[in-house]
Amino acid sequence: MARVKRGVTSHAKHKKVFKAAKGFYGRRKNTIRAAKSAVERSMQYNYRDRKIKKRTFRALWIQRINAGVRELGMTYGRFIDGLGKAGIEVDRKVLSDIAVHEPETLKALVEKAQAALAA
């Protein structure tokens, strides 16, 4: 039985790890033991932060809406409550975009929300 040389396989595996470690600092980019653990950890961060990204963006949208609405004399919480009572269903991403780019539309929404809260 002929012996199997495994150089090709291990080289391919190492190449895959080094490609993922591209841009890392020091030995973490060019030594397989250090690179392997660094890449593994980076994948954990990657997985975790894909979830955190959603929370971060929602928080950003809320801050933008709050800033836009406060200029018109209302708080974020009252605004969202008023929209709900007025039956206006717009998600926070779109509201944020409106607050940044279309102040007239936001003003109209605030007036509707105030009317719904007053009634």
TrEMBL record:
<keyword id="KW-0689">Ribosomal protein</keyword>
<dbReference type="GO" id="GO:0006412">
    <property type="term" value="P:translation"/>
</dbReference>
<dbReference type="GO" id="GO:0003735">
    <property type="term" value="F:structural constituent of ribosome"/>
</dbReference>
<dbReference type="Pfam" id="PF00453">
    <property type="entry name" value="Ribosomal_L20"/>
</dbReference>
<comment type="function">
    <text>Binds directly to 23S ribosomal RNA and is necessary for the in vitro assembly process of the 50S ribosomal subunit. It is not involved in the protein synthesizing functions of that subunit.</text>
</comment>
<protein>
    <recommendedName>
        <fullName>Large ribosomal subunit protein bL20</fullName>
    </recommendedName>
</protein>
<keyword id="KW-0694">RNA-binding</keyword>
<comment type="similarity">
    <text>Belongs to the bacterial ribosomal protein bL20 family.</text>
</comment>
<keyword id="KW-0699">rRNA-binding</keyword>
<dbReference type="InterPro" id="IPR035566">
    <property type="entry name" value="Ribosomal_protein_bL20_C"/>
</dbReference>
<dbReference type="GO" id="GO:0000027">
    <property type="term" value="P:ribosomal large subunit assembly"/>
</dbReference>
<dbReference type="GO" id="GO:1990904">
    <property type="term" value="C:ribonucleoprotein complex"/>
</dbReference>
<dbReference type="GO" id="GO:0005840">
    <property type="term" value="C:ribosome"/>
</dbReference>
<keyword id="KW-0687">Ribonucleoprotein</keyword>
<dbReference type="InterPro" id="IPR049946">
    <property type="entry name" value="RIBOSOMAL_L20_CS"/>
</dbReference>
<dbReference type="InterPro" id="IPR005813">
    <property type="entry name" value="Ribosomal_bL20"/>
</dbReference>
<dbReference type="GO" id="GO:0019843">
    <property type="term" value="F:rRNA binding"/>
</dbReference>
